[in-house]
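User: Quick sanity check before I run a bigger batch. Here is a single chain. Can you write out its predicted 3D structure?
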Amino acid sequence: MFTGIVEAQGTVKEVITNRPNKSFWIESPIGSALEVDQSVCHDGACLTIEETRDKMHRVTAVSETLKKTNLDNWEVGKLVNLERSLQLNSRLDGHLVQGHVDTTGICVSREETGDNREFTFRFSKKFASLIIEKGSVSVNGISLTAFAVKKRSFKVTIVPYTFDHTNIGLIQEGDKVNLEFDMVGKYISRHFELKT
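Assistant: Done. Predicted structure follows.
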C-alpha cells in the first residue's frame, strides 16, 4: 500500500527482455536503502525488489503488468517515480494507492496557468464510473485531484513542487501514463454491479 507521494526519481539503467516478462535495473537516491523482497511503487506499479547493488535495484514486470501499464515502453534513461510502501505509523498525505494500475491514459493536452500546469488525460470509457469530480486518482504513482471529469477524460493541476520532483514534467501530448482509480470507488462500483 502506498500514498501517491513520490519519494524519489530513479533512472532506468538496463532493460532485460525475457518474454513474456521484462526486468529493469534502476538507479536512484534511495537505491542503497532498498532490500530484496520489498514492494516499491514504480510509476504507479507495485513491483518487488529482486536484487540490489550499489545504488541500483532490479525488478521484473510480468506479462499482465506489461499489458496494463506503460512499462513495456520503458527504455534506458527513462525517469521513474518511486515510492516505498506505506508504514502504518506514518501520515497519509496523499490517498490510499495499491500500486495495481487499472489502465493507461493518454495525455491530450498540457497548459500553463500561472505557476501551475494543467494536464488533460483521456482513458477508456469503461472506467468512467471510477472517477469523480474532486476525487483522487494516481497518475504515474502521483496522488492527484481530478476535475473537469467527463466520461473519457479528466484534468489535474500540477503545483510547482510536484512538477519539479516527479517525472510528470516530462509528459507531453500523446504520452501514455499509468492510472489507478480510487480503491473505495472500485469497491462501491463492484457492489452495485453485483446487485443488478
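The chain has two domains: 8-84, 103-195.

User: Great, the batch can go ahead then.
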